Amino acid sequence: MVRIMGLKAVFVWCIWLGLIQCSVGGRVRHYRFDVEYMMRKPDCLEHVVMGINGQFPGPSIRAEVGDTLDIALTNKLFTEGTVIHWHGIRQVGTPWADGTAAISQCAINPGETFHYRFIVDRPGTYFYHGHHGMQRSAGLYGSLIVDLPKGQKEAFHYDGEFNLLLSDLWHTSSHEQEVGLSSIPLKWIGEPQTLLINGRGQFNCSLAAKFINTTLPECQFKGGEECAPQILHVEPNKTYRIRVASTTSLAALNLAISNHKLVVVEADGNYVTPFVIDDMDIYSGETYSVLLRTDQDPKKNYWLSIGVRGRKPNTAQGLTILNYKTISASVFPTSPPPLTPLWNDFERSKAFTKKIIAKMGTPQPPKRSDRTIFLLNTQNRVDGFTKWSINNVSLTLPPTPYLGSIKFKLNDAFDQTPPPVTFPQDYDIFNPPVNPNSTIGNGVYKFNLNEVVDVILQNANQLTGNGSEIHPWHLHGHDFWVLGYGEGKFKQGDEKRFNLTHAPLRNMALIFPYGWTALRFKADNPGVWAFHCHIEPHLHMGMGVIFAEGVHKVGKIPREALTCGLTGKKLVENGH
Domain Plastocyanin-like: where (predicted)? Predict the structure, then answer.
């Protein structure tokens, strides 16, 4: 449900919040979100999924720059808490609305309602998802699109638009996955059973059975099935904007449309210098806009495919059809779907990623940083449990949200010892760790307000055997400049290779196997922010850190955000 408030009320509301980012043209858009478990057939088999207002995926949110979103989220899950993170929205002035359990707020208890209120200050392709336990894996996600204000036009022309939300689906519940990841020995979640496009996929049949080597029968849809693909209907000789967001829990994907080229124009809500591609890799947490020109034979239909990259796949491609309206949508393409590139062709991923450079006019990074932290990704053991660690510390979140405990100086709420800012220089990243043992921790990297920080993400070998994975890292509350990538261990002098003129602004960054990635950001957004691998089980196993800056500048925090742990006790003691 959405309701729009008039301009006068917007100003009253903005003054009450003490915000300065309110746009003259902004509206308040009201939504009611009821989060609940539901029985659905997203891949033609019935499963329990998490949805909103009876919908899976959740309702799409569409707003304009300067609008305020007021989302009343009611937890109808019966036995577990929930929150929603608004991925890519910086939450300037509203850090309590970031939707990160134990970081920006307490989890919303069953039966309770929490109001998220925040301004969307920049156009772009975003999405939202659960950020408590592994609720994203359970299906708690949806699209969030921010348009330019009325009267303003994009720098690129298009005649129509499509929105693709990509995800992966398991036939085991997220709770079973959590237990397996927290067991001795580790029970890994395995590869997903199905890839979904806008919440739809096919497990027990194939749209392309006639063209590929499969034992599955061809899908026979009569219309209206939950798992029937959403077809993209297009006119010949037009240009379409396709917004693509990946909310996968694990899978990195490659997207292609048969016989058609794509032009990349946006990445993570930031405009980029346009470039032409045949296909694109998209990792968990990334968002893009691409332009499609419908310049092929209008008497044919064409495949849109997604396939697994970065991990040895055991999941069939996700498919739908690009339908030229000059013929029936029921006519299948006449050739096989695009072949997904080899899963371990990392050079292809690197080549695509390095083509992403800032559009002319994008703010350039500061020429130098005030401090540098080095974050080493390793797989370790803690008391026999398999964990992921950063500088040999595996993140375990405390019962009291950091935002409240730091603002109110509740020093007993988490470990006050700062986490390590680097790792031993003699660490061998090309072999399993000599000492596999790690520790758990919940310390915070604290930055001075407006400090310029460089982060060097360093990848390494896994716990046993030979291998190093790609990890997509996401920073809350900020965009950062991606200054560069390198092979092997970062060394003195590598900073001379940083790109300080065309560095793209992103909120997602990849670290490639046995390599490093350099980021720069300005700590200019008072609050406490997660920085973590966006692969859901990796975060669950500890692959993340916490950044804090200028928390003393944070204004009033709604009491509903702080009703647990030591902040909850403080509220009771103060009679609130």
Answer: 35-148, 162-325, 435-550
Q: Which residue has the higher pLDDT, 575 or 309?
A: 309
Give the confidence band of 576 by pLDDT, cuts at 50, 70, 90: low
Place of tokens 């609008």: 67
- Residues ≥6 apart with Cβ < 8 Å to 153: none
Question: Which amino acid is located at 49 in the chain?
Answer: V
Mean pLDDT computed over 127-151: 97
The residues, any chain, with a CB within 8 Å of residue 308's CB and separated by 6 or more, are 191, 195, 251, 252, 253, 254, 315, 340, 343
424-442 pLDDT tens trace: 999 999 999 999 999 999 9
Helix (H, G, I), strand (E, B) or coil at 349: helix
In Å, how far are 168, 360, 519, 550 from 271, measured between CA atoms?
27, 9, 18, 29
Tens of pLDDT along 381-407?
999 999 999 999 999 999 999 999 999
Amino acid sitting at position 563: T
Cα separation, 290 vs 264, whole angstroms: 4
pTM above 0.85, yes or no: yes
Distance CA 441, CA 511 (A): 23
| DSSP annotation of 134 | T
Quickly list DSSP for 436-501.
-B-EEE---EEE-TTEEEEEEEE----SSSS----EEEEESS--EEEEEEEESS--TTGGGG---S
Give backbone dihedrals phi and psi of 528, rounded to 5 degrees, phi first: -125, 130
481 beta partners: 505, 520
348 burial via Cβ count (<10 Å: 0-12, 13-18, 19+): middle
* Distances from the Cα of 353 to the Cα of 136, 258, 267, 357, 360, angstroms: 25, 22, 10, 9, 18
Q: Are 522 and 452 in contact (CB under 8 A)?
A: yes
Give the pLDDT of residue 25. Answer: 54
For 440, list phi and psi in degrees, rounded to 5: -95, 155
Distance between CA atoms of residues 338 and 315, nearest Å: 15
Two structure tokens written together for 233: 């209907």
Q: Band of the pLDDT at 17, cuts 50, 70, 90?
A: very low
- What is the β-pairing status of strands 508-511 and 160-169? unpaired
